[in-house]
Amino acid sequence: MIQKTIKTIWNNLAPVHGKYVDKAKQKKTDLKIVYQGKHMIIGNSKLNKPVRTTRVPDKFTGQDVELYYFQWDPVDPRQQSLL
To answer: What per-residue confidence (pLDDT) applies to 82?
Structure first.
């Protein structure tokens, strides 16, 4: 499982850099997103279905990179997950 810590949530959407999504697809594993101590897991089958994608310039290289936005739905420790 690939883990990525993010610093912001925008309109209840979690932005993830395209290189982490591509790495998870390549390894055929899930992506875990952590924000302020809470986390959510995006299954490998849902990595191809983001709510929104956008291209923005990288602040270090200036090249365009792709951001994937997923609906922020953190895991609730009081509720068990279905198999």
So the answer is: 58
* HSE of 50, CA atoms in CB hemisphere, 13 A: 17
What value does the mean pLDDT take over residues 39-44? 94
80 falls within a domain: no
Split at pLDDT 50, 70, 90, the class of 83 is very low
Residues 5 and 39: beta-carbon distance below 8 Å: no
Q: What is the pTM of this model?
A: 0.85
**Which residue segment(s) compose the domain that 36 sits in?**
2-71
Runs of H (alpha helix) within the chain: 18-27
How many domains is the chain partitioned into structurally? 1
Whether 15 maps to a domain, the answer reads yes
State both tokens at 17: 């850099």
